[in-house]
Fold this sequence. Notes:
Distance between the termini: 21 Å
Largest sheet: 2 strands, antiparallel
Number of strands: 2
Amino acid sequence: MNQSWFLMALVPPLLYAVTNHIDRNLLGIYFKEGGVGTLVIVSSLLSVIPIPIFLWVDSSVLSVGIENMPALAFAGLLNVGLIWFYLKAMQDEEPTVVIIFYSLVPVLGLVFGYFILDETISHMQLIAMAIIIVGTALVSFEIGEANNLTLRVSTLVNMVIACTCWALEMVVLKKVALEENMWRSLFWEHSMMVVVGILIFIFVPKYRYHFMIALRSNSKAILSLNATNEVLYIIGNVVGAFASMMAPVALVLLAQPFQSIFVFGIAVFLTSYFPRFSAEKTEFKHMLQKLLAICVTGMGTYLLLTS
């Protein structure tokens, strides 16, 4: 097997890591007022960008079975929920800590698959799931100045909800995958995001006000950063799809834990040389905590995908 697939498989987690830091800076610099809701409006409305591309690639995206429409719409809503709670967590927490929690997605995916799709869970998978949970538990506590531990309640709750939305979305899409294709799923996912963005803009005056203020004062920066985010995300998805055609999907997914590593590396670099754009805690105890969590969740993910 040509090993170039692995290098290609590393591209999506690297691009996603860059988008994570862009999100953090958008929240910290341009959306201090209005926060998550305002950024969701911008991101949702910009989701219209790839919709014509999906129509051009596959003109049948509108020919979705009527029985599958509710499922695809629900998947789109779950994607909005994922973004909302992820941004809520990113607003107050270090990007590395937030992304480590994403290791829970395959764990929750197996649980939903067991109950919704009648899939089975092996003993080895149960062990792997437990290891991943232990890994995320390592960053569930904030280490204080006196080495006291404080539970990151807000981050934990927001990321568990975000991971639940992501895992359930994957299971719902899989349930209709035999009748619909990837392009249709992406089309309806982005369309639903645009609809939700418009609804938030119309019915939530607070977010609409801050959205208009942000655009008037920093329109070029906001639109360019969000457009860059959207492009990087789509490129990551496309490259990941090509990598999946060059090697078994399970092997390609083994590159997924590298997103935490890339986020951590970028955060340390920015904190060291461009502190305005990142404030990662780089004391030894904090670095050790995050590295241990990355290693443990990575080991659990490896066992989960190879069992």
